[in-house]
Amino acid sequence: MELNTLKPAPGSKRARRRVGRGIGSGLGKTAGRGHKGQKSRSGGFHKVGFEGGQMPLQRRVPKRGFTSMKVVGEVLLSDLERMKADTIDLEVLKREGVVPHLATAAKVILSGALTRKIHISGVGVSKGAKAAIEAASGSVAAAAEQPPAPASEPRKPGSSAKDKKAG
Predict the structure, then answer these.
(1) DSSP annotation string for 1-42
(2) What is the DSSP letter of 63?
(3) What is Dmax (Cα atoms) for the chain?
(4) Is 14 exposed, middle or buried (0-12, 13-18, 19+ CB in 10 A)?
(5) pLDDT of 159 higher than 70
(6) Domain 72-140 has CATH 3.10.20.310
(7) What pLDDT, on the 0 to 100 scale, is given for residue 131?
(8) Around Cβ 143, how many Cβ atoms within 10 Å?
(9) φ and ψ at 64, to 5 degrees?
């Protein structure tokens, strides 16, 4: 077999269907589009989701929820064992490629073994992983947690926006 003798298998490449080229082809005159109507015209298609003027389903259905932008990276003890750094925080994990660059937080979980001494700061750690790190004479600094959102004061009865507008 030579490169200049290569060709597709017989029947694998069919000729393009040429429509509107006479009655002998079986697809002459209307070219398989039928008679009249929007779909028979050139450019006669509407946008996806269009329902003929009726309010489209995508706009009829109520919208709920949101997409969280928080990305939490998962770190295994075996990943920490392979890393060269002794002091580990989120920036080090990103630089080593252990967590994605878009990660806003990370958590170490108990999976694998840790035999060397490391210091972890600014990263969440599970109970089992913390015990394993401390057993290897390492240390864990508490992750900087965000303070809880202040609780909103309960509304007083009769203090709605309508009352303020009318008063």
Answers:
(1) --GGG--PPTTSSPPPP--SS-GGGS--TTTTS-SSSGGGST
(2) P
(3) 93
(4) exposed
(5) no
(6) no
(7) 93
(8) 17
(9) -140, 155
137 SS3 class:
coil
Over residues 43-88, the pLDDT tens digits come to 888 889 999 899 999 999 999 999 888 999 999 999 999 998 899 9
- Give the CA distances from residue 115 to residues 88, 112, 134, in Å, rounded to whole numbers and listed in that order: 15, 10, 10
Mean pLDDT (the chain, rounded): 87
Looking at the DSSP bridge assignments, the partners of residue 74 are 107
CB 65 within 8 A of CB 97: no
Q: Give the percent of the chain with pLDDT over 90.
A: 70
Count the neighbouring beta carbons within 10 Å of the beta carbon of residue 152.
6
DSSP, collapsed to helix, strand or coil, labels residue 108 as strand
pLDDT at position 160? 55
Q: Which two tokens stand for residue 16?
A: 């393009």
